[in-house]
Design brief:
TIM Barrel; 362 residues; 10 strands; 3-stranded parallel beta sheet; single chain; alpha/beta; 4-stranded mixed beta sheet; globular
Amino acid sequence: MSAVAPILEKALDGERITDDEGVALLESRDLVPIGRAANQIRCRLHDPTRVTFIIDRNLNYTNVCVTDCDFCAFYRRPGERGEAYLLPKPVIFKKIEETLALGGTGLLMQGGHHPDLGIEYYEDLFRSIKQRYRIHLHALSPPEVQHISRRSKLTIPETLTRLRDAGLDSIPGGGGEVLVDRVRDIIAPKKTKTAAWLNVMRQAHRLGTSTTATMMYGHVETLAERIEHMRRIRDLQDETGGFRAFFSWTFQSDGNRLSAKVPREAMPTSFDYLLTQAVSRIYLDNMPHIGSSWVTQGKKIGQVALGFGADDLGSVMIEENVVSAAGTTHRTSAEELAHLIRAIGKTPVQRDTLYRDVKVWN
């Protein structure tokens, strides 16, 4: 009997696996049985004949940032000539109109930690958007919220309440990276610490604002630290129930300083990606949805990942700047995502940000 078989049997019987068992699954490299179990769990949670995706835009309103994360090739320091930007409202409005014209329902809006932008900027921008367009604002990662609160001398609940009242609908899980401070001190020492990231999410959930959770791995973390990250997400989900989905993706190594700290042979492969995603579906027993990351893995592996615990193919991503700045530039369309889903015998379903059906593709 495989060493992982008792762990998988436990999970399939509906029991919660421990951290040690999660690490054992990652260490085992038994991709096929782990993937099979993850898919069985996925099929119990969601209609096995359907796979969802969303049409939205990843709008990066500014690349100005004072955080200097080693893994980021997107940001520019304040005043950096020629390349630092803050999008004016007319440009943002045009991008929203393009999104709506393509059948989009959501705007994923994130940016750098701009030293000059206080909460009034975001309130004005969000209200201006909501006055003009019917679109879901999925915006501002926890580090951005923390930056705004500090810049504006407000508490986190005060900041979130004002943003919500101005039009913020939900919060993405960006800036999570790996929620272990040993790792964060290496890759992003100026950025939000683990407890602070979790607290932003906790306070958002208490206000009725749902969020997603993410993990960016495959750099300086250990396998045990990947599971520790998942445990922190699972514990908070037990407490609040406010996460609706978990997305994980691998570190992209081009154009950033962190790549010098990660040996080439240690860079995660597609095998590592599929295994980690499958384990996340098994370990995160209280997470509604697991999304596949075709943006970092490519469309073929993104499609394969739908048999390894994912029920969602993520976003068409009309625009994407952060991952592409690190050298990964996969592109797609709603028609192509629908084709990828049909090719594995499933029905493509366009969803909105809150996982409500928008359109069933025939």
